[in-house]
Amino acid sequence: MSLPLLPGNTFTDPSKDKFHVSQSLGYKNGYPLTKLSARGIGGEIHAVTKSDQMSAAEFDEIAQMKPTLTYGDPVPDHPVQFVPAHVAFDKRVLQFKAFFNQTVRESAVEDYRVRFVKIYYYLEDDSISVVEPVVENSGIPQGKLIKRQRLPKDEMGQIWHWKDLNIGIDVSLYGTSFHVYDCDDYTRNFMESEGMDINLPEGSPADPYTQRRKAPQYVYQTPAAFDKLKKFMDMDRKVLRFNCVWDDRDNMFGEMRKFVLHYYLVDDSVEVLDLRHTNDGRDPYPVFLRRQRLPKDRSAVARDFPGVVLEVTDHEIADWYTPSDLGIGRTVDVLGRRFLLYDCDDFTKIYYRQIFNVQDFTPIDLASPRSTLRQPELPPYNGYGTIEDSIQNCRSLIPQPPKKDFIRMLENDGKVLRFSASMVSKFTEDKNRKFIISYRLSDDMFTIYEPPQRNAGIIAGKFLERTRIKKPDCDPQKPEYYGPHDLIVGQTIHVFSHKFLIEDADEYVLKYMEERSSEFPSETIEALRKKHATAGAPESATSS
């Protein structure tokens, strides 16, 4: 029997060296069970009595006991309330830091630029937006590069998911490869809570363009050739104002536009402003040429000067516009565009009167005569159809037949001039061939008929269908046709490489010439009159 554990009654037993709690939990046949420990703290053996142990009947009762008879049916747990994704993940955004390299073309100082962006992944609808933070004086448009939307990942139609994103990977969005190098703490905690391994942050690369801009610039101080301070104090806020005009009407869709040219005396710079009018249909930009020094000849630079450089200095250009080069009536070359100065304001007149002793400031009248419509040029004749048909095809979208002179057709309907002629040829068999030439006054059409001759050996009949005959050696684009004034007895006409000598005419031709005696030679009319009076009409001319 041990002493009670009271202060002063504790004795150290050197044989006891274990003071842990004995194990009372274990598994049997795969089921967790508790067991009675036979030893206590320090390894002491418990005094187990029979009353502390359960009998076999008690074990059977416990095994066959049904808790529902004692406690009733178990109460089911309340179902978890459904929360949609747009509510559960509302305003929960993953933020990744990335960059991409932009190629710079036609530059002598840089090949590429590093542009940093932030990729926002919205968990509520798996949409992505790419935003470039605004950098002051960057010189490039910034802000939202890709608006919020679901972005395709491959050609199979799959979209980017937050499980596809990680630090150190390349994300291809619409042909641009973004390299992810870091993310914020919320993104890291969220992805780690979902069981993803987040790579370590990478360092952001350096932008060579930004480093060059931040590098200290060497400032060279040269002695001034004149007192700049005095010029600034005397010429500050003194501006010469000229009204000018740019006449571009020689080019297609060109017009005459009015501008205002400002010459700043303080630094010899020039500015050109556009005079806008209501509903003029132009973009609302006020400055046509920003304030800068204006060279007389922009192309007068050295051959080794880089063409991509837009700003030139005194080292490249030696001749600049000065006040002595300006004035009413003079022309100024503004980077390839010629401006005519036609008026100026009162201050400019006083300045030129005092400095250059100019007295005449009469403005130039820009009133121009009313422009006439340019007639379209017709293409050359291609040889298909008649030239009148070709002209009609060029004048309208839908081809129309050539217009006829109906008044002339009504006045000369049925009026035909008939002549007898012979063929002029170097071949013997063609020298004795006789023809009847009929000319229709209504439409200037010719018909040539060959009457039958005995033992001629040539088939008689129609030699030429009704058509118009061109004069030889005329312009094919503007042809001249034979008319009644060209059909004179004794004359030769050319009909498609054949020559015909007009030998006689019928009585109707004589009447036609007598009615219009002022249009025909009197000798021709008198010869026909005598011939018909003595011999009558020729037999060949009366046949039709």
Task: Write up this protein.
The chain has 5 domains: 47 residues, no CATH class; 128 residues, Roll (PH-domain like); 124 residues, PH-domain like (Roll), CATH 2.30.29.170; 30 residues, no CATH class; 137 residues, PH-domain like (Roll), CATH 2.30.29.170. It has 544 residues and is an alpha+beta fold. It contains 12 helices and 20 strands. Keywords: Cell projection, Cytoplasm, Cytoskeleton, Repeat. InterPro entries: DM10_dom (IPR006602), EFHC1/EFHC2/EFHB (IPR040193). Its main location: cytoplasm.
Secondary-structure blueprint:
Blueprint: E1 25-28, E2 31-34, H1 56-64, H2 67-71, H3 85-88, E3 93-103, E4 112-122, E5 127-132, E6 143-149, E7 170-173, E8 176-183, H4 185-193, H5 208-214, H6 228-235, E9 239-247, E10 256-264, E11 269-274, E12 287-292, E13 331-334, E14 337-344, H7 346-355, H8 387-395, H9 406-411, E15 416-424, E16 434-440, E17 445-450, E18 461-467, E19 492-495, E20 498-505, H10 507-515, H11 522-534, H12 539-542
Antiparallel strand pairs: 1-2, 3-4, 3-8, 4-5, 5-6, 7-8, 9-10, 9-14, 10-11, 11-12, 13-14, 15-16, 15-20, 16-17, 17-18, 19-20
Helix pairs in contact: 10-11
InterPro entries: DM10_dom (IPR006602), EFHC1/EFHC2/EFHB (IPR040193)
GO biological process, one term: mitotic cytokinesis
Subcellular location: Cytoplasm, Cytoskeleton, Cilium axoneme
